[in-house]
Write a structure and sequence with these properties.
This protein has one domain. Helix content is 77%, strand content 0%. It has seven helices and no strands.
Length: 217
């Protein structure tokens, strides 16, 4: 395959990667109070930048140094994603909604979006790096692939968050109490998904056992 075509594939796969269920659940909870699509897209870009940073740094180290990721470490990184989802959900459930619906929106949770993106990128860096190694043997092109994959993830997450915020904003204008329900629903979804993911990684995949079985994904 032509290397430039492969880089184009990296952008496309990065965009698709942004729509993974754990990513969508996390960003939906973070952007649940965002009433306009443009600030939501900005949060998506910030999440994507955090994700891309750790994918490039950690994935690049795996490629350049030919590192192997032990199953316990790989599962631990994925377990951190479950904890991040639970925390994001708990924040939504514990948030007070005393302000009137026409009050000035609170500052965007950019730091939270970036931090959650970092955790998700850390968990996915090994899988992305191993995929690159099966496609590209030249380390320079492999690192370039990581960059364009990250760009695709940023673009994809911007689209996901904008797509989520637009109907939410319309519904909030029509039904002022809708935002409170959206925060509660996304909070419950994040906590539920996070608990399920923690159980799957810790028990089913064997993180807490002496013989874990881990497949990078």
């Amino acid at each position: 395959m032509n290397l430039f075509a492969l880089l184009g594939l990296g952008v496309a796969l990065g965009m698709r990667h942004a729509a993974d269920p754990d990513h969508v659940v996390a960003i939906a909870a973070i952007t649940a109070r965002t009433r306009r699509w443009l600030p939501a897209a900005a949060l998506g870009a910030i999440w994507g930048l955090g994700h891309s940073l750790t994918v490039f740094v950690v994935g690049g180290m795996i490629i350049l140094l030919n590192l192997r990721v032990p199953p316990h470490l790989g599962l631990s990184l994925e377990f951190a994603v479950a904890i991040a989802l639970i925390l994001v959900g708990v924040f939504n459930l514990g948030h007070r909604h005393g302000a009137p619906s026409d009050a000035r929106p609170a500052p965007l949770p950019a730091g939270r979006a970036f931090a959650v993106g970092l955790v998700h990128g850390l968990a996915g860096s090994a899988a992305v790096a191993l995929l690159v190694l099966t496609l590209i043997r030249d380390v320079v092109w492999a690192c370039a692939y990581l960059l364009v994959f990250g760009a695709g993830t940023v673009i994809g997450m911007m689209a996901v968050t904008a797509g989520f915020a637009t109907p939410l904003a319309l519904a909030t204008r029509r039904w002022p109490g809708f935002e409170r329900g959206a925060r509660f629903a996304t909070g419950m979804l994040a906590v539920t998904f996070g608990v399920w993911l923690a159980w799957k990684i810790g028990v089913v995949d064997g993180l807490f056992s002496s013989a874990p079985h881990w497949t990078p994904r």
